[in-house]
Amino acid sequence: MSNDLASKTIEELAPLIRGREISPVEVTEAVLERTTAYDEKINAFIRLSKEEAMKEAIKAEKEMMEGKYRGRLHGIPMALKDNLYFKNETVTIGSKIHQDFVPDYDATVVAKLKEAGVIFTGKLNMHEYAWGATTTNPHFGACRNPWNTEKIPGGSSGGSGAAVVSDMTIASLGTDTGGSIRIPASMCGIVGLKPTHGRISKYGCFPLSWSLDHIGPMTKSVYDSALLLEVLAGYDSKDPTSIHTPVKDYTKLLSADLSETVVGINEEYFFNNVDKQVEDAVRHAIKQLEQLGAKIETVKIPSLQYSEFAELVTIVTEASAIHHDNLVSRPEDFGDDVRFLLEFGELPSAVDYIQAQQIRYQLNIDFAQTFEKVDVLISPTLPFLPPNIGDSTVDINGNKYSFLDQVIRFTGPGNITGLPSLSIPCGLSGKLPIGMQIMGPAFKEENVLNVAYAYEKTNALQGKKPNLDEIASK
């Protein structure tokens, strides 16, 4: 029974909790038991908060007995990425330098989840300072992909991806600067949504790149991502990048009706040099969307050829500006890979940065024109399958390429434009999941979510999940 509870979605658990068929205590116990049993092999957690979580579960149960039900997240256990601030709690940001950092306020997203009645079970592993896509953390150990523990789970929100697919949390949040929600969502076989830039407040999240950072849900289902977006979205005066725009009832807009939906495909960029297994899975998914009623249209986005330069220059320079003082005074306290990227980020000139922003401006124009013709754009989330932990290269159709050069090739455009982008599982290659990316117009998350919701019903993974008992026995 406990495993059954841990494996359920928020959508499944919420009515059971509200109807008192199950209690928040039972669900929290189930999630904690599963984490205790399996996380030694996965290493998704930096800190597990058993006692605190059980106290909160008892409190939630008491509130419900008194008729104080707060909504669909009340009594739902969640662990969060360890770069989101919790008042008077240690937040490491996956680093040595901030290993004893204790914020004196909650992140806005944390405050909203607390108000909604979420039970926090711990802090999740991440790439150091969110500056990387492997979650091979030199200070807290490598997080492993639950489908194959020799593989990376992706990053920087690798702990979130691994914990969600392993049922060690009912749902989670990630942060995404170049793909750090969608990359682990793809590699771990879950749903990961990066909303429009400014849709969810970033106040109280340690920054990687001010103009590229996003916070978004990582969940077992599209409905759960839509629900978390409803709760977390909204203007926040504490975040200067927050946008004052209406928040919709995203769960009510999930119709799965694609009869009026036009799906755009860009061949030149998003299907260029893609591993055949990945490409076949995504193209099959597109055919299924067509069978569900969507119209498919090929589109051209000329400025995409320059997007990698724009994303790279923006992210490395902004990240290095944030960490400059520590890079000068205590460089040895960074992991080797992060230190290399921070040193590299000191090299681009002001001219490079301004050119990157000019490309960004043109990309926004080109994408806006594209979304006058189509409702969403679909592509692979990644052009390759998850590599082994420690590998610096990836395999694409038998050829070796730099991991760093390839990993944000398809996800980066969503950050440089700030457009909503979601990764959803669309198949398996052996025992490794493949992700499909769905992008939409600014502040039209409902477009992205509804296409994902319709596709989800095809059950691309056929109910398959990682075999954690097999992993634990090794």
UniProtKB/TrEMBL annotation:
UniProtKB keywords: Transferase
UniProt-recorded Gene Ontology molecular function terms: transferase activity
Source species, domain of life: Bacteria
Record Pfam families: Amidase
All residue ranges annotated as the Amidase domain in the record: 26-449
Similarity-based family: Belongs to the amidase family.
Designated name of the protein: Asp-tRNA(Asn)/Glu-tRNA(Gln) amidotransferase GatCAB subunit A
